[in-house]
Design goal:
23% of the residues lie in helices and 25% in strands. The chain is of the alpha+beta class. A five-stranded mixed beta sheet has the order 7-6-10-8-9, with no helix packed on it. Strands 2-1-5 form a three-stranded antiparallel beta sheet, covered by helices on one side. Strands 3-4 form a two-stranded antiparallel sheet. The radius of gyration is 32 Å and the shape is elongated.
Length: 210
Amino acid sequence: MFSARSMNRLFSFLVPVLASLWLAGCATAPKVAEIPKEPLTQAPEYVIGPNDQVQIFVWGNEELSATVPVRPDGRITTPLVEDLQAAGKTPTQLARDMEKALATYVKNPIVTVIVTGFSGLYDDQIRVVGQAAKPQALPYRASMTLLDVLIAVGGLTEYAAGNRAVVLRREGDHMKRIPVRLDDLLNGGDIRVNMPMRPGDILVIPEAWF
């Protein structure tokens, strides 16, 4: 058995050793990196464009309510209101303008506008031309990607040269050409090609050389 004196000597020896080991461990322990949080961004409110379809509800006056298209000139016509500008406005802005226009005929009108068919402003649309199954102009949606666009147009034709496609993107006064490899995305599953799209982008899909 150890004597009390031996135990004290052993204890006095171990304490500084253990303390130094603990400090060394604290100094060399890897720090867990904090992942920065991306700021939450609110999607911009939808802006009505030509060829959109809008439902106009006038509360308490069903005869004044209507579902109408936005004409190519950006205007709409509803009962008692003719040629009211709709394109370039949000649904809320259009509702307030409808209330002002109807105030001549209705006491304190309350109007709600709902967009039921979406085209969007021309400058915000994404155009797909060339060897897509259904070339068309698409309304831009928040967080839209290249793959979303290809799904919307039904993919590529058998004559498409997908890996020679380009996205034309306006930057200031210039049009930037961004090569994209659609075959690698659709057939090879290379998700790195799935770039985010921007309003006004033009996807050009050329025909294959035979």
